[in-house]
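Q: Convert this sequence to structure tokens.
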Amino acid sequence: MILRTATYHALHRSFVQRVFVFFSFMLSSFVVGLRVRNVDLVWGTSPPIFQGWTAWTLARLKRVPFLFEVRDLWPTFAIAVGVLRNRTLIRLSEWLERFLYRHADRVMVNSPGFIAHVTGRGARRVELVPNGADPGMFDPADDGAAFRTSHRLTNKFVVLYAGAHGLSNDLGVVLEAAKILQEATVTSEVTVTFLGDGKEKPGLQAQAERMGLTNVLFLPPLPKKEMITALAGADACLAILKPIEEYKTTYPNKVFDYMAAGRPVVLAIDGVIREVVEAAGCGVFAQPGDPAALANAIWALASDPAHSREMGLRGRRYVETHFNRSMLAEKLAHILEEMTA
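A:
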């Protein structure tokens, strides 16, 4: 059963308004949580980190174990990218982060890059349940003809970026790379497709128009189930973040979906996710923040489609073996059973 709570609505607005959203959910979820009976465990998740306080409080009131899941290193990422600047809010967030790590019965992270961070701030027992994908959702043999035809992408080498269009995603670098590709006559068939939404999207569209880009396409977000068709229609898929040291710790979920779909990865993120892509042999790395390096990585795949397809299939096999969501679910179930025993 899922219980929904009322929150302040401010999707893709200012950071201050998003904080209001976080605090409204923190309070409303606490009220709803108090009414729930026969609780065996309280599972809190961050970000936003403020709801972790709600989860810890409910766990102590109901005298049950508290599992704290860390999906992103908040507030560290928000500070690094510059969206969290208020000193009072920074101190409050960092204090709350350490408090939750110390007082959680277990802390669960989705990337090995997070382990040192959380243990260094007081986490006593850390469980790694990494991001992964469900290979059964995807058919790597699907050529995505319907998607390509509907968006006039037939006979193009399609590089797909799927996800948030936010400050952290550094998509302006992708536009610069598209400009380089467009000016190289041999790459006229490469089209970069942006699929998704976010605060930066209108600005990116305006920038693409000012640059005179004819090899980029902006599409609205799709439901998760329809993403299968979109990924099938891609020849390669792009994952990118700003060149910030903290982002080297991340396991972006989209990379595992790309791999499960059997598509080679253009990766402009260094760190632990680069280790996965290189171990699988399923993609090309480009130095984050470097448009020329990104353009070269895209062209390396576009110039050898047969090799690109083989790289994609390697990624598929690697996910099946190491990051299959069914196996990860078994590990999570074991953790929950241990905690509630």
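The chain has two domains: 15-132+326-340, 135-322.
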